[in-house]
Design brief:
mainly alpha
Length: about 100
């Protein structure tokens, strides 16, 4: 667990989302480009609360509600709707970064 309250898996997912060229190193360009204007930890924490992450029934119901075509997967547009539910000020760039984080 990090000082930010993230598990090792969450830290790895965040790192991988920022590591655009997947070389297992972050350049200053990647950091600046990928983290500009986003507070991913706060957004993910809010998302966990909204979707009922610790309540399996609520989590499944929320997932199904945003899986528009009911194919058992949430695409980036469906994910954007879900993120906008939890964080009203999230823009497209932030949504794309968050989607990359959870689509591992």
């Amino acid at each position: 667990m990090s000082g930010l309250g993230l598990s090792d898996a969450e830290l790895t997912a965040l790192f991988n989302a920022i590591d655009v060229n997947k070389d297992k190193n972050l350049t200053i360009h990647e950091m600046r480009s990928e983290l500009r204007g986003i507070n991913a930890v706060q957004v993910l924490t809010q998302l966990k609360q909204v979707i009922g992450f610790n309540n399996e029934k609520k989590f499944n119901e929320t997932f199904d509600a945003y899986d528009g075509n009911q194919n058992g997967m949430i695409d980036v547009l469906e994910f954007a709707e879900l993120i906008n539910l939890s964080v009203k000020s999230t823009d497209k760039e932030e949504i794309d970064i968050l989607f990359k984080m959870v689509d591992q």
